[in-house]
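Form 7-S
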Amino acid sequence: MLFRTSPKRKVMVIGLDCADPELVFGRWLNDLPNIKRVLDAGVHGKLRSITPPITVPAWMCMMTSRDPGELGIYGFRNRSEYGYDKLSVANSASIHEDTVWDILGREGKDSIIIGVPPTYPVKPVRGSLISCFLTPGSQSQFTYPHDLRPEVQRLVGDYMVDVKGFRTDKKQWLLSQIYEMTTKRLTVAKHLLKTRPWDFFMMVEMGTDRIHHGFWQFMDPQHVLYAGEGNPFGDAIHEYYKYVDSLIGELLEFADTNTRVLIVSDHGAKRMDGAIALNEWLVQKGYLTLKRYPTEPTRFDELEIDWPRTKAWGEGGYYGRVCLNIEGREPQGAVPRNEYDGLRRKLKEELEALGDEEGRSIGTHVVLSEEAYKETRNIAPDLSVFFGDLYWRSSGMVGGGKIHSKENDTGPDGANHNWDGILLMAEGKDLARSRTMAAPPVQGMRLYDVSPTILEAFKISRFPQMQGRPIQWPLARAV
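Output:
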């Protein structure tokens, strides 16, 4: 590994969506020599994610040091009005706060940005940008400047922003698609690092997320759907992590001695024990009233709901969102405003008491938005429900009378998100040295700390509205 000396300060951020600290820092560290080199040379530790720990908005919270309430996005889909059926998908147009690369651009710094959610539709940047998994496809305008798009296509053909349909039983196909996507993204990243000026480089690889959702049940003996020892995909996640580590090694070749390197994830991963049918529970408790109960499990948007008699309904996903039907707020509001807080507290208590199929506690906790965020822009959930502390996901289906299920309602999925991601950080000059022992993990790091840490590397002070603080190097590190 060659290390060049340069007077020009640079920062390289390698994002691995959903990369989990128990895998990276624990069971597989010795199989990941390039990640281990960064760990041994600098600081590392768990990186506490946001509420909720969801890809959108987590990466933008990281890049702005603002919480979901301040950004006004609470997940991949959000209520766009106080009606019953209008959900909008968050995208780059939803973000009105400065990102790190916006700030650096005003300081005359060039950036290369690849795959950071949400960056579609593309916005102008000082440098080069390739948008994220929200891009409809490679036929869309997914680059800035626009003439970068044909250059990318000449390089890798059909550039893959994501694996479409990753919730599938076609596991061999899924595995090949994940590898193809990752290979193309790293090919493009290396090309831009070679051919474009840059002070700040950041890319996010989605493959680590997709492989967790597709293959966790093959790896984890504690999973309710564990495929058994010796199954053909038992090592799929492990082998993919090793492949990603080898590509990280190729990226590190572009980090000279004056480059600060960060490897980060937006959240972690854990097995999924099942799904809880939030709307089915609300029906059975009398909060959600139907004109006709379905004869089979039915999606929420296909139900016949008696809105004037309905007090609450929910959204499925990695976590559950409960909306209350408030008089004067929703079109057919059934809950008087003076009963709003009391109903929320009652629902919180009852949802946290909801156990598994046999009534055993699963550790569900419910969050009120004003308690989680500095402010709440746009339409925040009335309640956010983390079933089983994210060992269970939320299903929006109604029908069949069952609240608990072992299967995901939106297609095969073996994993949910977890509260802690990863952060590793080292200076290029330290990567060039050999260390005999890594420093102990840094405690208390938060996702919001990443932006101020990047700015600090360029001697730019954090903005007062930022929630994070620059991560400090330990006073003493093993050498």
